[in-house]
Specification:
Blueprint (H helix, E strand, L loop, with lengths): L10 E6 L3 E3 H13 L3 H12 L6 H21 L6 H14 L6 H10 L6 H17 L3 H6 L5 H10 L42 H8 L14 H20 L1 H12 L10 H22 L5 H5 L2 H5 L3 H19 L5 E2 H32 L2 H14 L13 H11 L4 H18 L1 E6 L9 E6 L1 E8 L2 E8 L1 H8 L24 E2 L6 E2 L1 E2 L6 H11 L4 H12 L1 E4 L1 H13 L25 H37 L5 E2 L2 E4 L4 E3 L10 H4 L2 E3 L3 E2 L4 H13 L6 H10 L1 H9 L14 H15 L8 E2 L3 E4 L3 H10 L2 H6 L11 H18 L3 H6 L5 H9 L7 H15 L10 H19 L1 H18 L1 E2 L1 H16 L19 E3 L5 E3 L3 E2 L3 E5 L4 E5 L6 E2 L1 H30 L5 E3 L2 E4 L4 H16 L3 H12 L4 E7 L3 H15 L12 H20 L4 H9 L3 H8 L12 H5 L12 H7 L14 H11 L15 E7 L25
Parallel strand pairs: 10-13
Antiparallel strand pairs: 1-2, 3-7, 4-5, 6-7, 8-9, 11-12, 11-15, 13-14, 16-17, 18-27, 19-28, 20-21, 22-25, 23-24, 26-27, 28-29
C-alpha cells in the first residue's frame, strides 16, 4: 500500500474548521492553498496536521516536502507571499521544532533553492553545506540523483562537490532544459472536406484546432523516433490547449454577436454573454468578500475557486448548467444534485490541468538523465557510498506523481459547495426578456426581464428533491439548437506509447491510468499498487504493450466512400440522415379524453427523443470522421489500459478499432504483409464472415465469396450508385473494406505477393461459454462451442433452438395450448439472447423478460388474448434453461459453486474484525453499555470477493454499500453526499451475482493477453476486440494455433481447484454463518446451550445495561474464534482446551459431514432475484448476531424438551375460524463456523488438449 493513502477517511481527533473532516480533506486543503500561493494558510494547516497522531512519519515528511517544493517553485516564479529567508527559517528552525528530519528530497529541494542566491560563492558554500548534511545522514547518493534538478543545476552541484566524481560534467545549455517541439511537422491543408453536423458550442471546432498539426505532407514518414515523440507531445499539448481555450471561443462568439438594442429579440448568444459578464462580477465580489484568514476561506471554497479564476468559473457554470439541462430534458427540469455534481466535476477537471503539466515537467526533467546516470556510476565507484536504494530510502517518482494526481481531486464537500454557490449566483443573475400580456385588460404586450432559471423543492415518493427549472419560453429557444457535444482529451498517438511499467503510462505528456477503477472505496487501487510494487504484473504490462505498439493507418478507399456518403446527408448503414424527417401525429381535439391526449404527448416525446438520438449520433460520428481525416496518411498507435477484470480497452475515447462498424472499417495495419500461400483464402473467408455467412464450413464461406465476385466488383467500382450489395452485409463498412482488399489482390499480377494491410478477424464462439465448458468439462457443451474438432462449426444457439422446438412440437401434439401458439415460431434469434447472457449471470426473471420482448415482435400481445405473452415467455424460459442446463451441466455446477463461495465470503468476519469486536465488548463493559458509534464500522460484513488471474492480476469486486453519508449545507440547498471508504459493507447480492461472470471475464482477458504475447513472440501483428482477434491474412493459421495453445495453457491447469486453494489461504481463520432448522436436533441443542448461557446474564437486560441478545451473540462469535485458534495451536494443552469448549460450532462439528444436509442451501435464483427484498441483515453483523435471538418467546422454550416444543408448534398451527393465521417469523437457527468452501464440483470427461485440433475454435 502507498505510504500516503488518500483512500482513508480517518476522522481527525478533534474537529478543526481549518483542517476539515479527515486526513484526505485536510491534505487537499493544504495543496489547494499552495496552488493559489496562500503559503501562510498552508503553513497553519501543516503545523496542525503534524501534531495529529494519526499521521505516520512518512506522511508528515511527504506533506513537508510538498510544502517546501511549493515554496521553491514559488521563489523561481517570483510569486508573492514567499521569500528565500522564510524557506531557510522553515528548514533550519521550524522543521526541528516539529520533529521532522529531512530526507533526500528535502535536501535536494534546499540545494535547488541555493541557485536563487546572487553570489556564486554563497551558492557553492550553501550547496556544499546541504550535501554535507546528506552525507552525514547516509543519503548523499539519493540527494544528488534526485529528479528535482534541471540538467544544468545537476552539473553545478557536481562541480560544487567535484571531489565526489572521477570526471566533471560537460557544460549544458540552460535553454535545452525547456521541452522543444520544433520537430513537429508544419501543418498542410487537408485534402478532404466534411460537412459538419450542426452543434451547439465549439466541441468540433476545438477538436479541429487540436488536430491541426496532423494535416501534413508525406515528409513525416522520414521522422525518427525522437522527432515522432516530440510531435506526439506537441499533439497532446494542442488538444489540451484547445480544450482549455474552449471557453474563450464561447466568450468571443457571444461578444461578437453583440447585444441587440431591441431587448425582446436578444439572441441566445447575446443573453449568455450578458450572464457571463454579470456572473463574473458576482464571483469576483464573492472572492473579494471572503476573509482569507478565516476558516471559511480554507475549509470552504476559496482556494479551490481561486485556482480557476472568475471568468473561467462563469463560463464553465453557464455551459455545464445548460448542457446538463439539455441532457435531462430541458422542458422537464433537472435534479439540482445532478447539475451540481456535473458542474463540480467540470470545475475539478479544469483545476487539475495545470497540476498535470507541472507533474509532467518534473517527470521529463527526471527522464533527461543520460549524462547524470554516467556521473552517478562514477560516484558509486569513486566513493563507494552505501545507498538506501531498494530499501525504502527513496519514494519512486511514479509513486509521488500518483499521490499528487489523487490529491488533485477536490474534497466532495468543497466540490458540492463550490458548484452550488456558482449555480445559486447564476440563478440570481441570469435573466432574459419575456413578453408579458395582460389577458383580462387586453393591454398591449410589454417586455419584462424575467428569471431564466428557478429552484424548487418537490416531493418524490415522500422524499424531498431539489429541481432546477428553465422558463418555458426560454426552454423553447434552447430546444431549437442541438445539444452541445463534448470531445475526449485522448486521441490515437503518432509515436509509440510509453511502455507500461507502473500505474501511469501510454501518453507522453498527459499519461493515462493503467486501470479504469470503479471501486470508490480504493481497495482495488491498493491491491493493484501492491502487485506493481511486488513486480507481479510483468506479463500484464507486456500484453498491454503488445496491443499498444501495433501500428495502424486509415483505409483511404473506405474513407473516401464514407466521406461522400456523409456529405450526401443520406441515411446509410449506421449513418443517421443529416435532416431526418419525423412526422408528428395530429394533435387531438380539445374535447378528446385525457387518455388520448396523454398518448399523443407520449408519442410526440418519443419522436423528439428519436430525433435527438439521431442528431447526437451524427455529432459523435462527425468527430470520428474528423479524427480519421486528420490521421489520413499517418501511422498511429492505440495505447490500451484495462478494467478491473483485466479486459483491455483503447485509451482513445472517440476513435478506435473497438468502435462500431463504421470505425472498424477504417482501420488497416500500417505494416503490410504478402498474402503468401493461404492469405487469399482467408481474405475470402473474412469477407463471408463480415457479410454474415459465418455458420458454414470454411470452404463454403470461401465459395460464397467467389459466387458473389461480380457483386464485389460492383461494390468497389460503384459503391454508392451501383447495386449496393455491400450494404446487405451484417457489417457493411468492414465488408466494403474487404471487397477493396480482395479485388486488389485478385487483380494483382501475383496474389501471393500482394502486400495486404487488412486485419482479418478470428472470432470465438460464445467465448464465455467456451471457458465454462472447459471449466466444467462438458462434452456436449464443448461440441456446440467448437472446442471439439468437427467438420462444420457448431452453433449453440441453433442447437438450443432445435431442442426447444422438438419439445414444443411434442407438447403441441399433446394438446398444450401454449405450445400450439408457438408452433412454427421457434427460431435461433428467439433463444439467442438468454443463451448468450447466461455467462453474464442472467436470472430466470431476466431471461423471461428477454424472451417476452422477442415474442412481442412476432406475436401480437393483446388484452383480449386468452394466453398473454408473459405466460408464453414463462413456458419458453423453462424449456431453454432445461436444455441449456443439460448441455452445460458442469458449467451450471461451476456457476453455482462460484456464487455460493461469493455468498459465504460476503457474510464472513475476518480475524481482525473479531479482535476489534472483542475490544469493543470490553469497552462497552467499562463504559456501562454506552455504544461507541465511531468504532462500529467493523460491525459490518466487509469481506468482498478478491481473486488472482493466471497472469497474477488481483481482481477486486467493487460492489459495496456506501454507509457513510453527510448532509452538506450549500448556498442553494442541502445535499446528502456519500463518502465511500474501505470500511463500507459489501453488497452481498451483487457480490454473488457478479462473481461468476466477472471470473469468466477475467479468464477471457487472460486468454487475450496471453495470446497477444504468443503472437508477438512469433512476429505477428496483433489486435483484439475482446474475443475477436485480428492479424494479417497470411498469419491467420499461425495466430489460430497461438490462440488454441493459450487456451490450453490456461485450462490445462485446475483453474477452479487453484481458485479454491487461493480462497482458503486468503480467508484463512475467517468465520461465517450457517443455519439449520430451529426444531432439528442440532437446532434444539444450540437453543439449549444458549438458554444455559443466558441464565448467567440475568433476564431482560444484564447489570451492565447491554441487551442480552447482543451480548450473547458477540460472546458466541468470540468463543468460536477462540476455540478455532486453540485447535490450531501447536501446544497440546491449548488444543485440549479448545476441544473441551462447547459452542454451537463445536456441536455442529460433532455431527459429522453426514449431517450437513441440515443446513439450508443457497437458493441461487432467489438470491439473484432483484425483486426479493428479504435478508435485510445481509451486510450487518450485529443484526446477524441478534436475528436468531429474536426467536425465543417470553416463556423461554430453550429449556423445554423436544416433545413439548413440537406439541406447542402443532397447537399454534391449528387454524382458528375467521382469524388469519399468524406467520411464524423464525424457522432457522444461525451459528458461526470456520469459513470453508463447498467441494469443487466434479469435472466432466472433456479433455481440453483436444482443442489444439479444433479448426473452428476461433474462426
Amino acid at each position: 500500500m502507498p505510504l500516503w493513502d488518500y483512500t482513508r477517511g480517518t476522522e481527525l481527533h478533534k474537529r478543526d474548521a481549518l483542517l476539515g473532516q479527515n486526513i484526505e480533506e485536510s491534505l487537499k486543503n493544504l495543496r489547494a492553498c499552495l496552488a493559489v500561493g496562500r503559503f501562510d494558510r498552508a503553513e497553519a494547516i501543516f503545523r496542525r496536521l503534524a501534531k495529529q497522531s494519526i499521521f505516520n512519519v512518512a506522511e508528515v515528511l511527504e506533506a513537508n516536502n510538498t510544502y517546501v517544493r511549493s515554496m521553491v517553485h514559488g521563489l523561481f516564479r517570483g510569486q508573492d507571499g514567499v521569500a528565500l529567508r522564510k524557506l531557510q527559517m522553515w528548514f533550519e528552525v521550524d522543521m526541528r521544532q516539529l520533529g521532522i528530519s529531512p530526507d533526500a528530497t528535502t535536501l535536494a529541494l534546499m540545494c535547488r533553492s541555493a541557485f536563487l542566491l546572487a553570489s556564486e560563492k554563497s551558492r557553492d558554500r550553501t550547496l556544499r553545506r546541504y550535501l554535507c548534511i546528506a552525507e552525514e545522514a547516509g543519503i548523499l547518493h539519493e540527494t544528488i540523483e534526485s529528479g528535482e534538478y534541471l540538467p544544468h543545476e545537476f552539473n553545478q552541484i557536481a562541480r560544487a562537490r567535484e571531489d565526489l566524481f572521477e570526471q566533471l560534467p560537460e557544460e549544458v545549455d540552460q535553454t535545452a532544459d525547456e521541452v522543444q517541439f520544433s520537430s513537429a511537422p508544419v501543418p498542410a491543408p487537408p485534402a478532404v472536406v466534411l460537412n459538419p453536423a450542426s452543434q451547439r458550442g465549439y466541441g468540433l471546432e476545438t477538436l479541429l484546432k487540436g488536430l491541426r498539426s496532423l494535416h501534413t505532407d508525406d515528409s513525416v514518414a522520414q521522422l525518427d523516433d525522437h522527432q515522432r515523440s516530440n510531435w506526439q507531445i506537441s499533439l497532446e499539448e494542442d488538444i489540451v490547449t484547445a480544450e482549455l481555450e474552449r471557453w474563450r471561443l464561447e466568450h468571443a462568439a457571444i461578444l461578437k454577436m453583440g447585444i441587440n438594442p431591441a431587448l425582446s429579440s436578444k439572441s441566445m448568444e447575446a443573453l449568455m454573454w450578458e450572464w457571463q459578464d454579470k456572473l463574473t462580477k458576482e464571483i469576483k465580489a464573492y472572492l473579494s468578500s471572503i476573509s482569507k484568514n478565516s476558516p471559511k476561506y480554507v475549509h470552504g471554497d476559496g482556494p479551490y475557486l481561486e485556482q480557476i479564476g472568475p471568468q473561467k468559473l462563469a463560463a464553465i457554470t453557464i455551459i455545464e448548467t445548460i448542457r446538463t439541462l439539455t441532457c435531462e430534458g430541458i422542458s422537464d427540469g433537472a435534479p439540482v444534485f445532478r447539475v451540481t455534481d456535473n458542474l463540480g466535476k467540470s470545475l475539478e477537471m479544469q483545476s487539475s490541468v495545470d497540476n498535470i503539466q507541472n507533474r509532467q515537467e518534473t517527470k521529463l526533467r527526471h527522464a533527461k538523465s543520460g549524462q547524470r546516470n554516467k556521473m552517478m556510476k562514477t560516484l558509486r565507484v569513486n566513493k563507494g557510498i552505501e545507498t538506501n536504494l531498494g530499501k525504502g530510502g527513496l519514494i519512486p517518482l511514479e509513486t509521488k506523481l500518483a499521490r499528487e494526481r489523487r490529491s488533485d481531486e477536490w474534497p466532495k464537500v468543497a466540490r458540492f459547495r463550490s458548484a452550488a454557490l456558482l449555480l445559486s449566483k447564476l440563478i440570481e443573475v441570469a435573466r432574459f426578456p419575456k413578453k408579458q400580456t395582460n389577458v383580462e385588460s387586453g393591454t398591449k404586450a410589454r417586455v419584462e426581464s424575467t428569471l431564466a432559471f428557478s429552484h424548487a423543492i418537490i416531493r418524490v415518493n415522500g422524499k424531498k428533491k431539489g429541481m432546477l427549472y428553465v422558463d418555458q419560453e426560454l426552454a423553447k429557444r434552447l430546444t431549437k439548437e442541438p445539444p452541445p457535444c463534448n470531445m475526449a482529451h485522448q486521441l490515437p498517438m503518432v509515436a509509440p506509447p510509453e511502455s507500461w511499467s507502473d500505474f501511469t503510462g501510454a501518453y507522453l505528456r498527459y499519461p493515462a491510468n493503467l486501470m479504469r477503477l470503479k471501486d470508490p472505496s480504493g481497495i482495488q487501487d491498493m491491491y493493484l499498487h501492491a502487485a506493481i510494487e511486488n513486480g507481479n504484473l510483468g506479463k500484464v504490462f507486456a500484453g498491454l504493450n503488445v496491443l499498444g505498439k501495433t501500428e495502424w493507418r486509415i483505409n483511404r478507399a473506405v474513407f473516401e466512400v464514407m466521406a461522400n456518403t456523409w456529405n450526401s446527408g443520406e441515411a446509410v448503414t449506421n449513418f443517421p440522415a443529416s435532416n431526418p424527417s419525423l412526422e408528428l401525429p395530429q394533435e387531438p381535439e380539445e374535447s378528446a379524453i385525457p387518455l388520448t391526449k396523454f398518448k399523443w404527448k407520449r408519442e410526440c416525446q418519443r419522436l423528439q427523443n428519436e430525433y435527438n438520438g439521431f442528431h447526437s449520433n451524427r455529432c459523435y460520428m462527425n468527430l470520428q470522421m474528423e479524427i480519421a481525416r486528420a490521421f489520413l496518411g499517418h501511422t498511429f498507435f492505440l495505447p490500451h489500459n484495462m478494467d478491473f477484470r483485466g479486459r483491455a480497452y483503447p485509451v482513445a475515447g472517440i476513435f478506435h478499432h473497438m468502435g462500431a462498424d463504421n470505425a472498424r472499417g477504417l482501420f488497416q495495419f500500417a505494416k503490410g504483409k504478402a498474402l503468401g500461400e493461404e492469405g487469399l483464402f482467408w481474405l475470402k473467408v473474412h469477407l463471408s464472415n463480415t457479410f454474415g455467412f459465418d455458420k458454414a464450413s470454411l470452404e463454403e464461406r470461401a465459395q460464397f465469396t467467389m459466387d458473389h465476385l461480380d457483386d464485389i466488383k460492383d461494390s468497389t467500382q460503384n459503391p454508392q450508385n451501383g447495386r449496393r450489395w455491400w450494404l446487405k452485409a451484417d457489417d457493411p463498412w468492414q465488408c466494403l473494406a474487404t471487397c477493396f482488399e480482395l479485388l486488389a489482390a485478385m487483380e494483382s499480377p501475383d496474389p501471393k505477393e500482394y502486400i495486404s494491410h487488412l486485419p482479418v478477424h478470428q472470432d470465438g464462439t460464445c467465448n464465455g461459454l467456451q471457458h465454462y465448458a472447459a471449466l466444467g468439462g462438458d462434452e456436449l457443451g464443448a461440441a456446440q462451442v467448437n472446442l471439439i474438432p468437427k467438420d462444420r462449426p457448431g452453433d449453440i444457439y441453433s442447437e438450443v433452438a432445435r431442442l426447444v422446438k422438438a419439445d414444443v412440437e411434442k407438447d403441441s401434439e399433446a394438446g398444450n395450448p401454449i405450445a400450439k401458439i408457438l408452433h412454427g415460431k421457434i427460431s435461433r434469434k428467439l433463444v439467442k439472447q438468454p443463451v448468450m447472457t447466461y455467462v453474464y449471470g442472467v436470472t430466470y426473471f431476466g431471461a423471461r423478460a428477454q424472451l417476452q420482448k422477442r415474442l412481442d415482435e412476432i406475436i401480437v400481445d393483446s388484452p383480449s388474448n386468452e394466453i398473454r405473452n408473459f405466460t408464453i415467455a414463462v413456458y419458453l424460459t423453462k424449456k431453454v434453461f432445461t436444455h441449456f442446463g443439460t448441455m452445460f451441466s458442469g458449467a451450471t455446477r461451476i456457476q453455482h459453486w462460484l456464487a455460493e463461495c461469493a455468498g459465504r465470503i460476503s457474510t464472513a468476519v475476518t480475524p481482525e474484525q473479531v479482535e476489534k469486536i472483542r475490544k469493543l465488548n470490553m469497552e462497552k463493559e467499562r463504559q456501562a453499555g454506552k455504544i461507541l458509534k465511531k468504532k462500529d464500522h467493523f460491525l459490518k460484513f466487509q469481506s468482498g470477493v478478491v481473486w488472482t488471474t493466471p497472469l497474477n492480476l488481483p481482481v477486486v469486486q467493487p460492489y459495496r454499500e456506501v454507509d457513510k453519508t453527510k448532509s452538506v449545507a450549500t448556498a442553494l440547498q442541502s445535499f446528502n453526499i456519500f463518502f465511500p471508504s474501505v470500511n463500507d459493507s459489501v453488497h452481498k447480492r451483487k457480490q454473488m451475482a457478479g462473481f461468476p461472470p466477472n471470473f469468466v471475464h477475467s479468464l477471457d482477458a487472460t486468454h487475450m493477453l496471453l495470446s497477444a504475447l504468443k503472437c508477438d513472440q512469433l512476429g505477428l501483428s496483433f489486435a483484439s476486440v475482446h474475443d475477436s482477434f485480428w492479424t494479417h491474412a497470411a498469419d491467420v493459421p499461425t495466430m489460430s494455433r497461438a490462440l488454441r495453445d493459450a487456451f490450453v495453457e490456461i485450462h490445462g491447469e485446475d483453474v477452479i481447484g487453484r481458485l479454491a486453494e487461493e480462497f482458503k489461504t486468503r480467508y484463512k481463520r475467517s468465520m461465517y454463518r450457517l443455519s439449520c432448522p430451529s426444531l432439528s436436533p442440532l437446532g434444539l441443542q444450540i437453543r439449549k446451550l444458549r438458554a444455559e448461557r443466558r441464565k448467567g446474564y440475568g433476564r431482560g437486560k444484564n447489570n451492565l445495561g447491554a441487551p442480552v441478545k447482543e451480548k450473547l451473540g458477540r460472546d458466541e462469535m468470540i468463543d468460536e474464534y477462540d476455540r478455532l485458534s486453540l485447535l490450531q495451536s501447536e501446544d497440546p494443552a491449548e488444543r485440549a482446551k479448545g476441544e473441551a469448549m462447547v459452542t454451537p460450532g463445536s456441536l455442529f462439528a460433532a455431527l459429522g459431514p453426514e449431517h450437513h444436509d441440515l443446513l439450508h442451501p443457497v437458493d441461487l435464483q432467489k438470491l439473484l432475484n432483484p425483486e426479493d427484498t428479504s435478508a435485510a441483515s445481509d451486510h450487518n453483523i450485529d443484526a446477524a448476531l441478534e436475528e436468531e435471538m429474536e426467536a425465543a418467546p417470553d416463556h423461554n422454550t430453550d429449556d423445554a424438551p423436544e416433545e413439548e416444543i413440537e406439541a406447542a408448534t402443532e397447537e399454534q398451527s391449528e387454524a382458528v375460524p375467521g382469524v388469519k393465521k399468524a406467520k411464524r417469523p423464525h424457522t432457522k437457527t444461525y451459528f458461526w463456523v470456520p469459513l470453508t468452501f463447498p467441494t469443487v464440483p466434479q469435472k466432466g470427461s472433456f479433455d481440453v488438449q483436444i482443442v489444439k485440433d479444433s479448426t473452428y475454435f476461433f474462426s
